[in-house]
Amino acid sequence: MHFETSAEACSRVLSITFSMMLLSLMITIWRSFYVDTLGTTSALRLVTRPQGSSYFMLALPSYYEKKIRSLPGVVSVTRCNLFAGLYRNERSENVFAQLGTDPKAFLEVHPDYRIAPDQAANWESDPAGAIADRGLAEKNGWKVGDRLTLIGSIVPVKLELTIRGIFDPPISTQAVIFNWQYVEHSDHSISGRNNLFLILTDSPQSMRRVASQVDNLFHNSAEPTRTETEKAFELEFLEMLGNVKAFIAAICMAALFTTTLVCANTMGMSHTRTNAGTCRPPHPRFQTSKHHCVVPCGRHRTVFRGCLRCRAIQLPFDFCGCALRGMAAV
After folding, report:
1. What is the three-class DSSP state of 79?
2. Domain span at residue 279?
3. Which of 35, 81, 133, 148 could bridge to 100 as Cys pair (CB 3.0-4.6 Å)?
């Protein structure tokens, strides 16, 4: 009997621990997606993309960059193109972000990306050069001077890149960034076309004005634009996976519901054992032991069990009420 009680207690503790760990994980993911920023400088960056087009469409003409740069409040502009090439094989551990850009302008738009000055200069001077996120480089064992081959899927081009630098972003990007001119020289059909433009503004107060001016500037052009904050673009890109908010919320509710049921069951079992051991004077309607412990018989046993079930049903609601009051206090 003691062994069974210990096993039951152990299983309940493990159930509650797992549920709370899952709940904490989901809250952390929610916070990273919808609350945390991408860094201090990220609050000054805007993303301009084609209006209503796929992110993977090379739709925006390169001359947009010069026009955007001339707007008041704009510090710097760079193009950013998704390459989506194949590295080694199609296994998930070999999948990472691959971005084509203009090296000098990219570093101007991203002053929060820390890289050694000599490495930045080498990247700018090498048309086939690339820089890699430090976390990604350590994962794959890359060092400055190593070569890597990317075979394009969107753009049918094979790139032979040389790593010229390792950068440290404020938040891990898991990305390799290279000079987009290399791709344009390999496939002239895509020359002068881009996925996105990244804009660095002079202050958070001017971001809304700059975004409106950019979209108004190209409103009547062949390729109208949509300009939004970097965080908004990230969340919009995330929505391509589906309703992530509802998915995370459903897991959180399931974890909370499981924890509530386990706690209610534990409290109900404790209540049952306490009542079952209560001693009263003998009564003719009850079967009693020599210690006069209450053991209901017949239809009275059914009533007794019914009362305990009612109490067990009430306990989860009491627990939820306490949890909601605690959340409201926070």
Report:
1. strand
2. 2-34+245-329
3. 81
